[in-house]
Write a structure and sequence with these properties.
heterodimer, A: alpha/beta, Rossmann fold, 2 domains, 7-stranded mixed beta sheet, 5-stranded mixed beta sheet, 14 strands, globular, B: Rossmann fold, 5-stranded parallel beta sheet, two-stranded antiparallel ribbon, plasmid (chain A), Transketo_C/PFOR_II (chain A), EC 1.2.4.- (chain A), THDP-binding (chain A)
């Protein structure tokens, strides 16, 4: 059924080419990516709860209905398993569905469809059928949201072979990675850090570029210690890196993984070989979070470069607390700095 | 609070197919319809029911205002739906269980939760989820329809343990009827004959998606037929009618005339006057004047007229009720805003006994607070 066709390949934007830019925040960049790709490819459809008339609860799909009509921008009944299951069916008939789940905390009814089918349709059919779909979901805490609206459970999806898991941290990456995800021949879970949705703006190229999946980005170069992180946690990590540089003279390298599955092992290992020290920062609970996987990978690939224990600064192993305590649960610059200092002073 | 009157209004048998016009007792201006029977509630209960509906409305207005001032977080308004919530609460006996959604503030209150407990989670304080031992209310369900199979399971459990005077009632919205859990819960209930009352507060909108785009069924009550149980439609803005059908359903669940305990699906046809939550703007998806037709059947006005017509309510009593409500609300808000929470409490109640690793995490947090002070935790992103 659906397979890679020439126009679907991800074309990295040539950095040498001058491109027009527009200042956008992250949620605007998501909207811009959807608009751009829907204009390019009429098989792209957006479906989910409240995505059409209401433009999405975070306004990520605002204006798409007016531009592309109700056949391609579809309000579905309230049923996550139905949304993802239907999207799988659409994807198997050459459509390119982009399904929205309103919050990651509501993805669980769709979990069976994702792990039992989207992830393994290719392998179960021996390559005959594929599921080129994207499931978008805002994730993470820090916005005083009600219970169940602040989860960061990316490890559930990373653990499933056959799925790709992408988490942008900046507007320009959000656009490039989402376009690449839509063009990707495999199912992609695209997690949007809602804390960053409107936190800042930056120049985003307006052309239809894809940022390749599976490549981490070095946000800050340094030589003493590497901090591995992604999504919303990139930003307090960069603040912490500046603080320890000012206060302690520690030179921190910050690696933004961007794609959690497949993991960019090469960049992870190269950076560790350079610094010999690693701190992993994530807002998901510490136990069995992705930090454990990264630490194990470093141990397997670069043990002899290790200068200090690998440490994790993570959410605690408790249900995400209500907002009065979320600042204590989420890794803030304070805790990240502590982790960096410990790694360096070992 | 809950009452235990036995003379119950039986729904019209035509409603068993779930497609009849919604059952009414009061017409739009609060006059008792000629063919209707007022439920056997005492004058005191009728006045108390009115007072609770009025309290619910004031609570709603106050909560929205507090949210606008940044004093509480996202809130799900209930104006328009207070009548159905309060009426189902009155129909429950104290030993019955209530599984509410995030919008059933009034139903929870009527079944025994205090106002401060309702406000605390909105202030970010999990302490509000603490359920007193003598109150049979489950914590609010935020994921959609997940309470439906649980209600079936609880009712099944009560039945297995011979608690034949206990029923389980769960609320959900029209959107919930699209979720798999709704279908699975009702199907199990029908198969196992468990004493569950499923109340769909059909408020016409699942955030921005209208009921007719949620389901192609003519009514929600008719879905009951698929599971072999009875479906009943009732005017959700008529508190007396909602009370009557809920009492009848509970009766059927607990102690039916024909000795066959059966679940019921009630569709309370109503309207959400305001936004889905304070984070939602209904003007993007529906016409402003749509609510006006529904407001003509407002549950508070109808009960007020009904009680005035019966000579049970006058200006003096109204003033007394208003004063009581304002005092209650002010006290609740003050007590909640004065409440604080210890960050270490996030480690409480995760397990029966806190595992070693979690004890270490709690100690780490405590030592960081001691070393740097609490302000350091609140320095975000800027």
């Amino acid at each position: 059924m659906s397979s890679k066709s020439p126009d679907e390949s991800t074309t990295p934007r040539d950095s040498q080419t001058e491109s027009a830019t527009e200042t956008m925040n992250l949620v605007e960049a998501v909207r811009h990516a959807l608009h751009t790709e829907m204009a390019r490819n009429e098989r792209v459809m957006v479906l989910g709860e409240d995505v059409a008339e209401n433009g999405g609860v975070f306004r990520a799909t605002a204006g798409l209905l007016e531009s592309f009509g109700g056949e391609r921008v579809v309000d579905t009944p309230l049923a996550e398993s139905g949304i993802v299951g239907t999207a799988i069916g659409l994807a198997m008939t050459e459509m390119r569905p982009v399904a929205e789940l309103q919050f990651m905390g509501f993805a669980y009814p769709a979990f069976d469809q994702l792990v039992s089918h989207a992830a393994r349709m290719r392998s179960r059919s021996h390559g005959q059928y594929t599921v080129p779909m994207v499931v978008r979901a805002p994730y993470g805490g820090g916005i005083r949201a009600p219970e169940h609206h602040s989860e960061s459970k990316e490890a559930f999806f990373v653990h499933e072979p056959g799925l790709k898991v992408v988490v942008p941290s900046t507007p320009a990456d959000a656009k490039g990675l989402l376009i690449a995800s839509i063009r990707d021949p495999d199912p992609v879970v695209f997690l949007e850090p809602k804390l960053v949705y409107r936190a800042f703006r930056e120049d985003v190229p307006t052309d239809a570029y894809g940022t390749p999946l599976g490549e981490a980005s070095i946000r800050r170069e340094g030589s003493d210690v590497t901090v591995y992180t992604w999504g919303a946690m990139v930003h307090p990590t960069l603040i912490a890196a500046d603080n320890v540089a000012d206060e302690d003279g520690i030179d921190v390298e910050v690696v933004d993984l961007r794609t959690l599955s497949p993991l960019d092992v090469e960049t992870v290992v190269d950076s560790f070989e350079k610094t010999g020290r690693a701190v992993i920062v994530h807002e998901a609970p510490k136990t069995a979070g992705l930090g454990a996987e990264i630490a194990a990978t470093i141990q397997e690939e670069a043990l002899l470069h290790q200068e200090a224990p690998i440490s994790r600064v993570a959410g605690y192993d408790v249900p995400m607390p209500l907002h009065e305590l979320e600042d204590y649960y989420l890794p803030q610059a304070l805790r990240i700095q502590e982790g960096i200092r410990e790694a360096v002073s070992f | 609070m809950s009452t235990q009157n036995e003379a119950d209004q039986q729904p019209d048998s035509a409603t068993a197919h779930g497609t009849a016009d919604p059952l009414q007792i009061l017409d739009a201006d609060g006059t008792v319809l000629s063919n209707a029977t007022v439920p056997d509630l005492s004058d005191g209960d009728l006045i108390a029911m009115y007072e609770d509906i009025k309290l619910a409305r004031r609570f709603d207005q106050r909560a929205i205002s507090l949210q606008r001032q940044g004093r509480i977080a996202t809130y799900a308004p209930m104006t328009g739906q207070e009548g159905a919530q309060v009426a189902t609460g009155y129909a429950l006996a104290a030993q019955d269980w209530l599984l509410p959604t995030y919008r059933e503030h009034a139903a929870k209150y009527v079944h025994g939760m205090d106002l401060a407990s309702l406000l605390k989670p909105l202030c970010g304080l999990r302490e509000g989820y603490a359920i007193p031992d003598d109150v049979n209310v489950m914590p609010e369900y935020i994921p959609i329809a997940t309470q439906v199979p649980q209600a079936t399971g609880m009712a099944w459990g009560k039945q297995r343990q011979g608690e034949t005077d206990t029923a389980v009632l769960c609320h959900f919205g029209d959107g919930a009827t699209s979720e798999g859990d709704f279908h699975e819960g009702l199907n199990f209930a029908g198969v196992f004959d468990v004493p569950t009352v499923f109340v769909c507060n059909n408020n016409q909108w699942a955030i921005s998606v209208p009921r007719e785009h949620q389901t192609a069924s003519e009514t929600i009550a008719q879905k009951a037929a698929a599971y072999g149980i009875e479906g009943v439609r009732v005017d959700g803005l008529d508190p007396l009618a909602v009370y009557a059908v809920t009492r009848a359903a509970l009766q059927k669940a607990k102690n039916p005339a024909d000795d066959e305990r059966r679940p019921t699906l009630i569709e309370a046809v109503q309207y959400r006057y305001g936004a889905h939550t304070t984070a939602d703007d209904p003007s993007t998806y529906r016409e402003e004047d749509e609510a006006e037709d529904w407001r003509e059947k407002d549950p508070l006005d109808r009960m007020q007229n009904f009680l005035t017509n019966r000579g049970l309510l006058d200006d003096d009593l109204e003033a007394e009720i208003d004063e009581r409500i304002e005092t209650q609300l002010t006290e609740a808000v003050e007590s909640v805003e004065a409440a604080t929470t210890d960050p270490a409490t996030m480690f409480d109640h995760v397990y029966d006994v806190l595992p070693a690793r979690l004890r270490e995490q709690r100690a780490e947090l405590e030592s960081l607070r001691e070393k740097y002070g609490d302000d350091a935790f609140h320095e975000v992103l800027e």
